Each structure stands twice: as structure tokens, then as C-alpha cells.
Amino acid sequence: MTTQLLERPVAVTCPATEPDDQHPDHPTTSAEAPPSAAHQAAMPYRIGAPDSAGRYPVIIGQDSVIGRAHRWNRDWWVETSTGETNFGRPDKGVPGVEMAAARLAETYAAGEITAIPLDQIRAEVLRPLTGPVPLLHPRTPVSDRNVKSALTAFAGLANLQWRPVLTGFPGSDNHWILQCLLCDWVGPKFWSHLRGRNGGLPSLHRHEGGCVGPDRVRELIPAYQQ
Fold first, then answer.
1. Does the pTM of the predicted model rise above 0.90?
2. Is the pLDDT at 47 greater than 80, yes or no?
3. Higher pLDDT, 2 or 200
4. Which residues are CB-contacts of 171 (< 8 A; sequence separation ≥ 6)?
């Protein structure tokens, strides 16, 4: 994993203990509290390149990861030492990963989470499931619409020589970890991109690295010959 040097100072404040009047179940953070009510600190961080599951490590100090951020249905979630947290959607014009990283830095400065070595993150290997994956991703509700969409997606993947290796259908606009059956590449793809626009076929450039090349893709996948 290589990291993008996106280091920048972050204004970090300790969260207030008073609940938000409009959201009583969610305490007001120091970013929302008046400056006089919070202790200010600065914590530089950098955002690493995403892994094959689309999770961005947020790194502080030399090589300490305070959490990993990923997008799900337009919300941004983080995985930390305390589990998963949904940070919601960023303000208009703010990249979601930037919002999530800044919130993580605040949470870490408040002593609510602990860091782990970057080498430990790098050593993690996504282990594909043995045999077929479930029809739906665990976060995807079971409904007639979702089941129908999942069956359509699985049929489309088979036609285009892809195979899910970790989870069932996550929805059209969430990363889905897939294996390319033409060359064994594994990584995140969007079903909304793979299904092509307006019923057409997706690009012959299947993924990073070029796969087996456009000519072989046409030869091996009948759909491109029609």
C-alpha cells in the first residue's frame, strides 16, 4: 500500500458532553461548540491510498492508523478500534473522505479510539469466501426490489465474466469486491459502472492493469460480439 501525502493540520477539539438540542441521541462535538468551551489542538494526518475494499487509512505520526474510512450509500463510515461508525454525508463541496478523516482525528484526540500500526493494516489480506456468496450484502435490506436487483446483477456479472468473492449484492452505487474471471484480478467495482450506460456494455478496459487486452475481452465474452 502506498500512501498519498495529504498531510494537513486539523483543528481538533475535545467533544462537549451536552447533547445536541435537535439530536438528543448524539452529543454535540467540540466543532459545534463555542471556541471558549473547548480546548483547541492541532493534529496533522495523512490519508493513505484505499485498499481493495475501498477503505482509506487515516494515518497520524510516523505510521499509526487511527481508522479507515469508506463510502456506503453516500454516507461515510469509519472502522476504528471501537467498531463501525456512520459519520453521515459531508457538506456540499467537501470530499467525504476529508470529512471522515477530520472527524477521526477529533475522535482520536478525545481519547475515544486507539491507533494500530500501518504494517498491521498492510498485512491484512482479504480472504475470499469458499463457494458462493450470499445474494445480498449484510447491510442491504431484504426486499422484493433488492432481491430482484441482486438476481439481475449476478446474472450480469456471470455474462461479463466477474464473480463476487466477499459479499452479496451491495447495491448499484456501492463498491463490490469482484474477481475478474479472465485474469484473476480482485478489487472493488461498482455494478452501476459494469452494467454499462443505457443498457450498453461497459468499457473494454475492465480494471487496473489492463486485464487481457481489449481484443481478448471481445473474443472471450460473447456479449461484446453482438
1. no
2. yes
3. 200
4. 73, 137, 140, 146, 149, 191
